[in-house]
Structure formats: C-alpha cells, structure tokens
Amino acid sequence: MKYHQIDRDLYVKNRAKFTAQMKPNSVAVFNSNDIYPVSADSTLPFAQHRDILYLSGVDQEESILLLFPDAPYEHLKEILFLKETNEHIAIWEGEKLTKERAFEVSGIKSVIWLQDFHKTLKEVMAYAETIYINTNEHYRAVIETETREARFIKWWKENYPAHKVEKSNHILQRLRSVKESEELDLIQKACDITEKGFRRVLQFVKPNVMEYEIEAEFAHEFLRNRSKGFAYTPIIASGNNANVLHYIENNQQCKAGDLILLDVGAEYANYSSDMTRMVPVSGRFTDRQKAVYNAVLNVKNEATKMLVPGTLWKQYHVEVGKIMTSELLGLGLIDKADVQNENPDWPAYKKYFMHGTSHHMGLDTHDYGLLHEPMQANMVFTVEPGIYIPKEGFGIRLEDDMVIQEKGAAFNLMRNIPIEIEEIESIMNS
C-alpha cells in the first residue's frame, strides 16, 4: 500500500464495538471484494470492501473475517482467513500478507489460510445459533453485480438453513458514521492532499487549457503524496458543463471568462475527502459571478452552523432550503410569486438548487449513516450547496468536509483550502 501503516488499535476498537452489539452465541462473517475483470486478462484495480477493512485493516483480496465472541475456544473468537502466499505469488504479484504480518496489521492472532475456511466454519457453526450476514443497504446503493459477499450468503443459506439470521449492516451503519480520532486524522490527511492539488491547479489554470489537463494536475499531486488517486470520479466542469451535476467527461476546453467547477477529492488509506471549488479561467470573477458565488458561500456558512448534535438530516435540508430561497430572491432568479405558488414537494428554490446539501463521508465518499437518527459528535458531513443557471452559462457549487463537535461549531477539515474570492484571485494572479 502507498499509505503508512495504520495503528492496529483502531481495528481492535472497531471489532470490540461491533461484537458488543452482537446477539449471544452468534457469528459474523465479512468477505473482501472481488478483483473485477475487464476483458481478456485485464482487471480493474482492487478496492477492498470497506466493512472488512473497517474491522480488520486487511487491504487484500481473497480475505475473510470471522467474529465469534462467545466461541468456546479462544482461537475461534476472531479469525482472519487469507490466501496462502508463496514464492511464485511473491514473484508475479508482490508480497502478500503472511500470518505474522496480518497480526501486525489487524491485531488478530488467529490467522488461517483460506483453503481451510469451510472446515473451520463447519466447526464454528456447530457451536453458534445465529449468523450475521453482511448486505449492502446504503440508501444510494444500486447493485447489479454479484459480489463475493453475495455469493457467500447464497452458499451459506444452502448449507446452514437451520441457523437464525441477523444483519451486520444496521450495526455498521451506526458504528461507521461516528469516527474514531484515528479515522478523523486519516480524513484530514486526505483533505490536506486535496489542498495541495487545488493549490497546484490554481497556478496552472489559464484560458484554453483542457479540463483533462486539470484532472492530470490533481492526479499528479495526489499520487506523489501517497494517495492512490481520486476518492471518486472527478468532475472538472467548465462553463455550462457545471450545470450537469455528475459531469465526468472532462474533455472540453476552458474558455476565457468562464468558471470551472472542480468537484475533486483525494483518498488516503481508503478514506475519502470531498471538495468543490470554483476557479475563474481568466483569473478574475465577473461581478455577476461574484454575486452568485457569495450567495452560495453564505448558504454554505449558514448551513454549517446547523451541523450540531441532535440535528435531524431531513429538517436540516428544509432549513437550508429557506436560506437558499432568500439568496435566490436577492439574485433575482425567483420572485415572491414563485415562492407563494410553489409546490411544497418541489419548492421554488429547487429550480436552481436541486440536490441535497450534505451527506456522511468517511471510508466511502457517500458513507454509512442512518439519516433518520439525530446527528452526533464525530460524524463527518459534507456541506455543498449550489446554484445552477444554464441560461447564464455557469453553475456554482462550494463544498467542505465538516466534523460535528460535542459543543460549538463544526470543525472544518478543509479550513486551509482557499474558498474566498479574494484569496483565489490573489493566488491565480501571483
């Protein structure tokens, strides 16, 4: 891995939190992701399943974690199953985890080669009454590919139909949404790498540059700072492209006078950052661009004040909508009649701001979190309002990553990334 080794105490704590919520005499199983084929002998880069990573720190394919806190024998309470490494694999693919190295990474003493998984599971299931299966129930998930986890669940149901079933996801949604201090440090590192990329881009942008050239500048800076690259597919959207919310082609020329929307974030140790900034191609914002920019910035600042323990996500977005409505009235984009006659299910402001303001962030860019439950300290949320005006040829979105505090204002992990108009213009024209 490119990143520095993470203290295994984090994973020891994470497992303890999970097992504390398991029912008596139950076992939980977590599988790694597959390596997905492209064609011929080509594959996509491996990305570990975030749940087994969260609980073990193992960032390797063909790995399984088994947790059985009430096991009658100590060596069955926590088990890592890994593909057995050998000299041939080391030569062709590079070093894989040995049993000793797996303990250093995870803190799990019982490491068994994967070829003995079924034999060990058979013994475990003879003692256990319940199994926790790990399904993906994220509210944004659209799953069309059968995962390694899904194949295991199908196999398990056929071979152990008499056991009770519980789901891991409900526990993980809560646990993963509240970050440990070590996790906050890793997200901060990802944000710091994103800052370096953005400052590099501010010196690089000029009229006629291509969007993909800007993407390349970010990639260069991310990789040279121990990141694997982008936490998500980057959006480099100049001019009217910014009005396409998930524009990812990044293949157009940036023209003088236009703005560029940069929705980009580095990952670090599989933790995400998620930033959006606006850059004027010519180094200066026009008066109209400034007015809209400052309106979005004000909405972001006001929304951030509401990120405190106890806030309900749904009501939070209602209140943000009221602030955005006021800003759009001031910009002349809507009038009082639009507001008076609005559809409550699609308020007038939605014409120019049609997406949500915040989402959980962590190991996934759109991270786990139960949105019907109140916000808590050490949850990380994005704040990303926007105003999109196709008729005027530009859209503006601004986004920071915030940590909710026990008391006081949320802590901005992107506090050092330029966002004020004056600072952006100053750097671009220095």
TrEMBL record:
It catalyses: Release of any N-terminal amino acid, including proline, that is linked to proline, even from a dipeptide or tripeptide. Pfam families: AMP_N, Peptidase_M24. One of its GO terms (molecular function) is aminopeptidase activity. Its EC number is 3.4.11.9. Residues 6-142 form the Aminopeptidase P N-terminal domain. InterPro entries: Aminopep_P_N, Creatin/AminoP/Spt16_N, Creatinase/aminopeptidase-like, Pept_M24, X-Pro_dipept-like. Keywords: Aminopeptidase, Hydrolase, Manganese, Metal-binding, Protease. Its cofactor is Mn(2+). It comes from the Bacteria. It is an enzyme of class 3 (hydrolase). Belongs to the peptidase M24B family. This is Xaa-Pro aminopeptidase.
